[in-house]
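Database export, one record per block. Field names are fixed; values are copied verbatim from the stored entry.
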Amino acid sequence: MSLKAPRTCPKFSLFLFFLLMLQFAHAQDFSSVDQLLEKNKKLLGNNVVALVWKDGKLIYQKAIGTDFTAKTQAPVASCSKWITAATIMALVDEGKLDLDDPVVKYIPVLEKYMKGYITLRQCLSHTTGIDNGKGGLAKVFERRKFENLEDEANTIAAKEISNNPGKEFAYGSSGLNLAARCAEVVSKKDFSRLVQEKITRPLKMRATTFVNDNGNAPNPSGGAQSSANDYMNFLIMILNKGMFEGKRVLSEASIAEMQKNHFPGLPVKFTPKIAEGYEYGLGEWIQEKDASGNATVVSSPGLFGTWPYIDKCRNYAAIIFVKTLLGEQKKDFYLQFKEAVDEQVGPCK
């Protein structure tokens, strides 16, 4: 006597098939995100690209504007800081720099102005105590007078001190640009070339550069140009704890250091409105945390309106990339965008 395999009712199989198809369609339904972007395209300067990456692939992409695509190069302003911090951490991984090194070790002129106790960690977290002013667009253009980062470091060294190092948070450009100069000294390479070797080339970021078109010094805090595709590669590396296409770009320890608030509870002298209420790691904002205080969402919004972020809890990366939106950013829109994406991606795991 032989056993017969049970037969499945064809109608039931078809029913299951349609259920699966409906579930798939719902998972891929980003119509609410489309509508949000279309509704706010004027707010975003009428040129915007949005990308969402999860589980090894792009699950959403949208481009609005004439000849503005995910490959289009545009300035990313303060989004540059994330890339700069990653470049510094690559040298930390190699043992060429230490986060607790006094910066005066590489920039001796700081000793002359009583700034010999500032560390690299403080430079990357905006806690140097050096008076930054209030940043903004004026500061971006003010930098054009510097011929190189050494020239800028000398100018920063002579600035007033608003507080002792590690005693207050003041968002600005001085700290990261000092850190970039340290990287130049220890590597004996121009900062733009160093970024290319450590970050952009390994990540296939061919449209990303810190080279200044007018021949002046690169601006590590706000002078990068990139594309939506390029910056997404950077985000993928961060989300994957330093790995990109099977190769290690940064150590897992360095990624963790970047996502940690190293000086919690400090008084805030200045923070941009778009990041009010957030904490700061090394070159990036800690946008959300879990119950244990660990970063779950990190980001690096820029002055021109580009907003890259990763959601570690939901395991995805996203970027809103704009062309040249000058002026005060609309934080509410970016949070609405993330909320709409979260609804499609699903809850934290």
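Remark 1: DSSP finds twelve helices and 13 strands in the chain.
Remark 2: The mean pLDDT is 89.
End of record.
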